[in-house]
Design goal:
The protein is 85% helix and 0% strand. By secondary structure, it is mainly alpha-helical. The protein has one domain. α1 crosses α2 and α2 crosses α3. The relative contact order is 0.13.
């Protein structure tokens, strides 16, 4: 990965970490669904776009934001456990 892409990603995480994680999750979920459809035997460019969109939407709206808060809660619990 080119260094400037990584730097831009790190800056996006600093500026708005939840949105950055939501965007990454949406893209990865969409690509994952496209790969799954190709594996199921669909031609590369004849895939179910609505299904891919729904999968990306789930990654964007649910996984990206929920995983951010889940890991934040886990980190807080770890700190609290270390303090006791």
């Amino acid at each position: 990965m080119p260094e400037h892409n990584w730097s831009a990603y790190e800056e996006a995480l600093k500026a708005n970490p939840v949105l950055a994680k939501m965007m990454i999750s949406g893209v990865v979920y969409s690509l994952g669904d496209w790969i799954a459809q190709c594996y199921e035997g669909k031609p590369i460019f004849e895939f179910d776009r609505a299904r891919m969109f729904r999968s990306g939407l789930v990654g964007f709206t649910l996984h990206g934001s929920l995983s951010h808060y889940y890991y934040h809660i886990c980190e807080v619990n770890e700190v609290l456990n270390l303090m006791n």
